Amino acid sequence: MKEFAIYTGLRAGLFVVSFGILWVALRTWLTVWPIALVALLITSILSLFVLRAARDRLATTIESRASKMTSRIEAARRAEDDD
Fold first, then answer.
1. Whole-angstrom Cα distance, residue 10 to residue 5?
2. Would you say 38 and 74 are in contact if contact means Cβ atoms under 8 Å apart?
3. What is the DSSP string of 11-71?
4. Which of 10, 20, 58, 67 has its CA 20 to 30 A from that of 44?
5. Residue 39: which domain range?
6. pLDDT tens, 14-62?
7. How far is Cα 11 from Cα 50, in angstroms, rounded to an integer?
């Protein structure tokens, strides 16, 4: 599932970048955990817009796999009914 690995890597990279920027800007006022939580919030919001194409490719892949699995299950069910 290459698309899942790509999307997860991009999401993690976005978190690292936002954490790094916040760390440089806020390390004198905040500790690591609040900076990480703010970075997580920023990453969640940004990923909706920045990673839309990767998320759409992942959704397409998941949908095609699910439809293949559903058709295999239906074929097996029909074969079982014929017996």
1. 9
2. no
3. HHHHHHHHHHHHHHHHTTTS-HHHHHHHHHHHHHHHHHHHTHHHHHHHHHHHHHHHHHHHH
4. 67
5. 2-82
6. 999 999 999 999 999 999 999 999 999 999 999 999 999 999 999 999 9
7. 10
What is the spatial distance between Cα 22 and Cα 2, in angstroms, rounded to a whole number? 30
Q: List, for residues 53-68, the tens digit of each pLDDT value.
A: 999 999 999 999 999 9
CB 7 within 8 A of CB 58: yes
83 — pLDDT class (breaks 50, 70, 90): low
CA 7 to chain centre: 5
40 and 15 in contact (C-beta within 8 Å)? yes
Is-contact 22 39, C-beta < 8 A? Answer: yes
Number of independent structural domains in the chain: 1
In this structure, what token pair is assigned to residue 9? 């890597």
pTM of the model: 0.78
